[in-house]
């Protein structure tokens, strides 16, 4: 049988709201620049492959720094 440890942790409404805002802003920071670069390259050069590669690369570079971005957003919104 699986036994789950019950920890007493009180989550306040402020902590939950802060978590939701940080998650939302992190999602925006990770997706919108890559999408903007992809669409910008696609509409200016009409080259879908180059836009996809550059946008995909930018997205993963942003993912590499997501821990730092998350900590910054948490400090900013706290």
From TrEMBL:
Top-level taxon:
Archaea
Q: What are the protein's UniProt keywords?
A: Membrane, Transmembrane, Transmembrane helix
Q: Does the keyword Membrane apply?
A: yes
Enumerate the transmembrane spans. 20-42, 48-65
Q: What protein am I looking at? A: Uncharacterized protein
